[in-house]
Every structure is written in structure tokens, then in C-alpha cells.
Amino acid sequence: MIELLSEDRCISCNQCVKVCPTNVFEATEDGVPVIARQSDCQTCFMCELYCPVDALYVTPFAEQAVAVLEKDVEERGLLGSYRSSFDWNKRKKAEKASEDKPLMKL
Ligand code: SF4
Ligand code: SF4
Asked: Where does the record place the 4Fe-4S ferredoxin-type domain (predicted)?
């Protein structure tokens, strides 16, 4: 379940608002979205994957919220950890390269 959005890291790109399939986040006037409907989270990790600055932390516990402190999560290197473990940046670059240079011309 989504547990944390770091306001210090957030660059207000609203990617999390756009990719969340269950509309958990709410865009705000000051730019930093809020976790408005935490209980609707499906623990799909899409927001963590798409956040470009690792400002989000989703726990693997889908059924219940777990209180976390940003300092602890940061110290343990957990912000954006799903994105890192998935090597998402490398995959996105590889996808872009294959789009630029298709294996065969259609
Ligand atoms: S983990 Fe999935 S459902 Fe939960 S807030 Fe992120 S994008 Fe939305
Ligand atoms: S995707 Fe990350 S940087 Fe962008 S608005 Fe959401 S939390 Fe902030």
C-alpha cells in the first residue's frame, strides 16, 4: 500500500496522479499531490515505477496501512526501491532505443 510521498523530493510532475489506476492521488494547486484515497491503493507499484525522483514508497502489504517515518525509509534506501530493483530506468532506455532503431522496417 502507498505509504509515503516525500514533499522534499517531489518535483510536482503529477506522473503518479496520471498512472495510478485507482485514483489514489489528488493534484493540488501548490503542485505536490496528496495521497487522498490510501485505502483504494491496489499495491501495483505503478506510481513508484513512474516517479522520476524516487519520492514515493509503496509497502508490499496490500491489506493494511503501515505507519512509516520518512527519515527511516530514506535511511534504509527504500524510497523508489521497487523501481531500482526492477531496473526501470535501464528498461525504459532499452525500449526507447528499440523504438528508435527497429529490428526490421515495416
Ligand atoms: S501502488 Fe498502484 S494503486 Fe497504489 S497508489 Fe501507487 S499506482 Fe496507485
Ligand atoms: S511522480 Fe513523484 S515527483 Fe511526480 S508528482 Fe508524483 S511524487 Fe511528485
From this structure: 1-30, 31-61
